[in-house]
Amino acid sequence: MAVREELKKLGLHFIVVDLGEVEIMENISAELRAQLKTDLLHLGFELMDDKKGILIEKIKITIIEMVHYADEPTKLKFSEYLSEKLQYDYTYMANLFSEVQGITIGQFISAHKIERIKELIIYSELNITEIAWKMNYSSVAHLSNQFKKITGLSPSHFKKLKDLRRNPIEEIGNSNGTSHSALLNKRKGNAE
Fold it and tell me: Which of 79, 145, 170, 187 lies at a 20 to 30 A Cα distance from 23?
């Protein structure tokens, strides 16, 4: 809404293409473009008119949507999915992404998948087999190997560490291991 207001304020006609993407209907002067860029920066947005930069952002957004928000695993390979969704040759996108980002698309996908797996391990009711299916791994072993390669831990070890960090409410602050309810019972007994 803030971007729409800025565009209206500058008298520009536009079409909202997608979340974070607006197409301006008219050609704008360098001065007006600079003003728009400044105004958007003040709002926390960046004006991107570099076609390669825009494609890189679209690749990132597509991967993030696919990894973090898809309900079902895609039946296509990531390369096919990206090519189909963005209408570019995968080799071109992969080379451009590596050149600009300094990592491969595969590494970017893996990093996001591992973060999503961590989230699923910590907050989900899914077991590791279900997580492997949800995240489109061919097997639990494949997931475990990639998880360990990136984090240095096996998924089960990561889960144990997560469990160790959590203390039951009744045990918080009791250094001798005596539970809060046991202390209350002792006090009740002494008071009677």
Answer: 79
